[in-house]
Amino acid sequence: MKIALAYNLKKKDETKPADYSSEFDSQDTINAISSALKIKGHSVDLVDVEQPNLFSYFRKNRVDMVFNIAEGKCGKFRESEIPAILDYLDIPYTGSNTFSLALALNKALTKKILKAENIPTPRFQVFVKDNGELDSSLKFPLIVKPNREGSAKGINVSNVVHTKDSLFTKIKEIRELYKQEVLVEEFIDGKELTVGILENGRITILPILEIDFSTCEKSGEYFYSWRMKEYQGNTEFGLVPTFYCPARLDKDTEELVKQVALKTHQAVGCCDISRTDIRLSKDNIPYVLEINPLPGLNPTESNFPIMAYAAGMKYEDIIEAILMNASERRMVQNE
């Protein structure tokens, strides 16, 4: 097949916040996916979606499939930008559709869907202004997040607050920096887990990955903050979590967590691939924090490949599975 690999390239911009391009992909990731596709016999065009003539490119260069890892450029629905263009041009692509991508980017809307489906998620409140009344049912500690960002953007250890004063200070800070509504939710003390789902003719729930932050005491970080994700493995900063895959769970809890992740994948309408982040509370409730339909695919650093490797897959097999499921879905649609 002729494949276009659509991506945003990570790059520094001194005029933007330090975490501005965190969701974008490194050249190493782009090269790895391209190489994996070529190993499987496909030809590959690299398409930076920030090029000014993107629409013209897709009109003039017809491809069999777009392997989509693009996060889009800006706005409330940015992860849907490239799929929307491709839908208009009737070009098939890997991964979830415009609706699911837009929904998953909005944490609060996703949580409303989860609640409707009886999927555990921390209690929350959305603030569209810097002030307001805190819902009396919410219990401290609380964690404060930008509502429409990924890769832990805008999140550090100070986002976990214990008083109303610190809560509203952090809400104001995030509103000013990210120009969007703020999600406030109860902070769940427990195990950090993430669950990958890969579709390849059938749904495969990958081995659960547990991230243990007890080895990060030097950093002062004890959950997935932006620094933890951006500089993971940096011994100088103390950002050295320990990974367990499969996670250290008994069989019943493992099955419970996997089913919650699967229900989340289906409730949001994800296709081909997703990664669901879960906090397992001390009373064994798997609280879904968020779902990512565009999980990182760096072969050495990203969580999704780690889980797939634990299932016995090679990197090129992960990429081929995503591509083939999208191709099969397209054939079914055209029947």
Write a structural description:
By secondary structure, the chain is of the alpha+beta class. The chain folds into 3 domains: 2-95, Rossmann fold (3-Layer(aba) Sandwich), CATH 3.40.50; 123-186, 2-Layer Sandwich (Dna Ligase, domain 1); 190-334, D-amino Acid Aminotransferase, Chain A, domain 1, CATH 3.30.470.20. Helix content is 34%, strand content 20%. The protein has 10 helices and 13 strands. The chain has helices at residues 27-39, 54-60, 81-89, 98-105, 107-116, 164-178, 226-230, 251-268, 303-310, 315-334, and strands at residues 2-7, 43-48, 65-68, 124-127, 142-146, 160-161, 182-186, 190-199, 203-205, 209-212, 242-244, 273-281, 286-292. The strands form 3 sheets. Strands 8, 9, 10, 11, 12 and 13 form a 6-stranded antiparallel sheet that branches. Strands 4-7-5-6 form a 4-stranded antiparallel sheet, with helices on one face.
Keyword list:
4-stranded antiparallel β-sheet, globular, 10 helices, 6-stranded antiparallel β-sheet, single chain, D-amino Acid Aminotransferase, Chain A, domain 1, alpha+beta, Dna Ligase, domain 1, 3 domains
Question: What's the helix and strand layout?
Answer:
Layout: E1 2-7, H1 27-39, E2 43-48, H2 54-60, E3 65-68, H3 81-89, H4 98-105, H5 107-116, E4 124-127, E5 142-146, E6 160-161, H6 164-178, E7 182-186, E8 190-199, E9 203-205, E10 209-212, H7 226-230, E11 242-244, H8 251-268, E12 273-281, E13 286-292, H9 303-310, H10 315-334
Parallel strand pairs: 1-2, 1-3
Antiparallel strand pairs: 4-7, 5-6, 5-7, 8-9, 8-10, 8-12, 10-11, 12-13
Helix pairs in contact: 1-10
